[in-house]
Each structure stands twice: as structure tokens, then as C-alpha cells.
Amino acid sequence: MRRVFLTGHRSFANHGCEALVRSAVALFGEALGEVEFLVPSADPEEDAGFWPQAAERGVRFVAPVDAPRLYVWWARACRRLSAWRRLPWPPFPIGADLCRHLEATDLLIATGGDNYTLDYGLDSLSGMIGIDGRAMDLGIPAVLWGASVGPFDAVPEVVPRVRRHLARFGLIVARETVTRDYLATMGLAERMRLSADPAFVMAPEPFDLQGIMPAVG
Q1: Residue 109 and residue 8: Cα distance in Å, rounded?
Q2: What's the sign of the alpha-carbon dihedral 174, 170, 101, 94?
Q3: CA dihedral 203, 208, 211, 217 (to 10 degrees)
Q4: Which of 38, 49, 67, 162 has the smallest number of Cβ neighbours within 10 A?
Q5: 110 - beta bridge partners?
Q6: How would you write 163-179 as a 3-class SS string?
Q7: What radius of gyration do the chain's Cα atoms show?
Q8: Three-state secondary-structure class, residue 131
Q9: What is the phi/psi pair of residue 173, to 5°?
Q10: DSSP state at residue 149
């Protein structure tokens, strides 16, 4: 059985992330056949409640990796002191459990939509680079899927580091033309394909509205 690891996810409470995971599972499952999807989750019980069919679709929730407190302080220092941004980034601690999962993985799919931006801070961005980069170091094919990327104008010192990392992806699937055009300015056009947001391909499923909608009549 093939095994696919989805990075960039943490909780189905963010239903945009849930939509990306659901569509990834459907599309890659159809393309690859029998697949086990490893999906990081901060609350597997809650996520299973949002998606009761997750297990039968091949999804297994695993523990996410959080940035340690010292790493968060490093990111704050970078925000306040521009000189810090030019220093080498500290290595992001992956942990034994995640390494074990990655070593048993056949394909890494980086989801989450806008994780490769500055929206969530340098600690989040460097965490994505650290985890995805570890898979690449192991020789695992990696796809940045359904993504918005950049811009990084607010912290231009990170651009060379991010560009080197993005160039290691086997494929970058951008979900809008703004990202496509931005990646072209970074010299990554040949590695990129443009597609609609993959969340739009989710198949409709019946849902019991009893208890949510007011009674009629």
C-alpha cells in the first residue's frame, strides 16, 4: 500500500483546510489506488467528528509538530531586528515520531493553502520548510498542492531561502494567477502548474440538518 503524508494541516476546525484535505484524499486516492493518508491533527477526535468517514477513506491522524517556544522567540526577534533575518535559520526540530512517519512515506503533499506566505509568521513558514525539507532530504517526492505563495516583500531577506526550498518541489500547483505570476518572478515557472482551488472538486455528500436549522411549520 502506498502512503501519502499531508503537511500543512492542523485542525478541521479550519474548514478551508478540511476542504483541501478531503479533496486531496479523493483525488490522489482515485489516481493512486489503495493509499493510506497520514494527516497531522491537534485533535483527532474532533477531526474524526467533522469527517466520520475519514478512516474508511484511508486517513490516519498523526500528531502535529509545533514550533518550540525558543523558535517562536526567534521569529519575534526577526520581526523586531532586521539583522536577525540575515543570520542562518536555526534548524527546525522534527522529532522522532515525524521522522518515522516520513521514512515510511512514498509521497509528501504540502497542503494548507497559504502556509508558504508570511500570514502566520516566520516560525510557521520555517516549520513548513523544515518538515517538507526533511522529506526531500530523504528522497521523498514532494508536491506543493493547491497553494498560494508569497509575497515576501515584508521580509525580503527570506526570499533566497524560500526560493531554494520551493525549487526542490517536484511540482507546485498554484491555485490562482497571482501566485503563478509571483512564482514566475522567482524563476520557478517551469516547476509550476495553474489549477483551480482543489477544494472546489469535492463531491457533495448528504448531511443531516436536524438540530441545526430551525423547524419549519
Answers
A1: 9
A2: negative
A3: 110
A4: 49
A5: 7, 144
A6: HHHHCCCCEEEECCHHH
A7: 18
A8: helix
A9: -105, 105
A10: B
Separation between Cα atoms, residue 78 and residue 85, nearest integer Å = 5
Please choose, from the candidates 15, 24, 14, 4, the residue with its C-alpha nearest in 3D space to the C-alpha of residue 146. 24
The three-point CA angle 159-164-169 to 5° equals: 120
C-alpha atoms less than 13 angstroms from C-alpha of 71 in its C-beta half-sphere: 18
Of the candidates 196, 96, 76, the one whose C-alpha atom is nearest the C-alpha of residue 148 is: 196
Name the E strands within the chain.
2-7, 35-40, 59-62, 107-110, 142-147, 171-174, 192-194
Q: Return the C-alpha cell found at 130.
A: 523544515
Residue entry with cell 539583522: 83
